[in-house]
Amino acid sequence: MESNDKNTNSDSGGSTLTVLVVDDDQGILHAVERTLRSLPVNVLMADSPAKAIGILNETQIAVVLSDYMMPGMNGLEFLSLVRNRWPDTVGVMMTACDDIRVAADAVNKRLVFAFITKPWETKALRQSLMDAVEKYRNNLSQREGLEGSAAKSLSTEIQKRAFAAAFSLARAVDARDSYTRMHSEKVAAYSQVIGRALGLGEGELEELRIGGLLHDLGKIGISDGVLLKPGRLSKEEYDAVKKHPTIGASIVEPIEFSDNIKNIIIQHHENHDGTGYPGGLGGDEISQLARIVHVVDAYEAMSANRVYRDARESGWIVNEFIRCRGTQFDPYITDVFLGELNNGNIEAVLADLQKASGFNL
Questions:
Q1: How far apart are CA 82 and CA 54, in angstroms?
Q2: Strand, coil or helix: what is 96?
Q3: Spatial contact of 327 and 271, defined as CB atoms under 8 Å apart
Q4: Alpha carbon distance 120, 103 (integer Å)
Q5: What's the first-to-final CA gap in the chain, in angstroms?
Q6: CA 270 – CA 291 distance, rounded (Å)
Q7: Residues 143-190: tens digit of each pLDDT
Q8: Which among 31, 35, 85, 30 has a CA at the least distance from the CA of 55?
């Protein structure tokens, strides 16, 4: 990540406007940075959408220039998520010649402001970026709305892409660490076991599945140095980790997920006795679905190997739940979970996931 300090271009608050370049190819990143060096903007770089989301959460970005073909999430999904979460930020997509039709369609649907073909012409790239900067200024000074069917069509298309991007980001969180591979899939599946035991309807079971898959989405904004640290976290590092429910909630806030799903994301570390985070909620203040995910998330973490410790033995885990029943965990949901664990229903779901994935989880 770099910045260009030959800048005079500023927003209404007097600070220098910033362009974020996103590409998984380091050579491309540095080539673009060199091309933009003469422009009156700051330039930041990210080699993945995941890292770009972290920057967007911390920094006001005027323009995002993103590659189209990237591992895990394509540029159109990523820029649709940006458009949904940061509507003033202007998206520009870089494409190879083979992707021009996709890019042109995205511009026509107003999912992105413009596209640049690779290899690019220096003058054209610089002009497109400055046009995008001007568009950002216009967005700030006059928030133009679309009316009628055009607005509905745009909203539907952006929502669809943003949904896909959210799930891609959640998969990217698990993929950062071999120890957490399929963590979210297991949390989603175990949560549904508990939901069925509680007699929840199909709608709530589906919300449990989606919320389980997305519950750790906000960890995309936490650095690898903290998330993958093998030793004990410092207070500052732990405070950073504790921000992930809030970061996740901010990412999905403009996406049309149900309140139950959004509550799972922001409340899944709230404790029954009110000592959890981020809101210090307790008891029935916490969504029932979030209380379910809280229990199974803790079980999955304890029962799996982690970079900082080996998996706990089953007897130790059961004793821990009994010890924390009524303080960290909802007592009734804890009892239901331990019953399902004792009946072998959790292990049965794990076996199904192992068979489907081909991994020894």
A1: 12
A2: strand
A3: yes
A4: 15
A5: 35
A6: 8
A7: 544 444 444 444 566 666 667 667 767 777 776 665 566 888 999 999
A8: 85
Beta bridge partners of 90: 63
Structural domains in the chain? 18-141 (3.40.50.2300), 179-357 (1.10.3210.10)
DSSP string of 116-148, one letter each residue:
EEESPPHHHHHHHHHHHHHHHHHHHH------H
Closest CA to 93 of 110, 85, 9: 110
Sheet holding 90-96, edge to edge: 42-46, 18-22, 63-67, 90-96, 114-118
Using a CB cutoff of 8 Å and minimum separation of 24, what contacts does 261-264 make? 261/207, 261/210, 261/211, 261/214, 263/211, 263/287, 263/289, 263/290, 264/207, 264/208, 264/211, 264/212, 264/214, 264/215, 264/289, 264/290, 264/293
> What's the token pair of residue 245?
């429910």
Q: What are the residues whose beta carbons fall under 8 Å from the beta carbon of 329, sequence distance 6 or more?
A: 271, 272, 291, 294, 295, 298, 321
CA distance 337 to 323: 14
Q: How far is CA 75 from the centre of its chain?
A: 15
Q: Encode pLDDT of 191-218 as tens digits.
A: 999 999 999 999 999 999 999 999 998 8
pTM for the complete prediction? 0.67
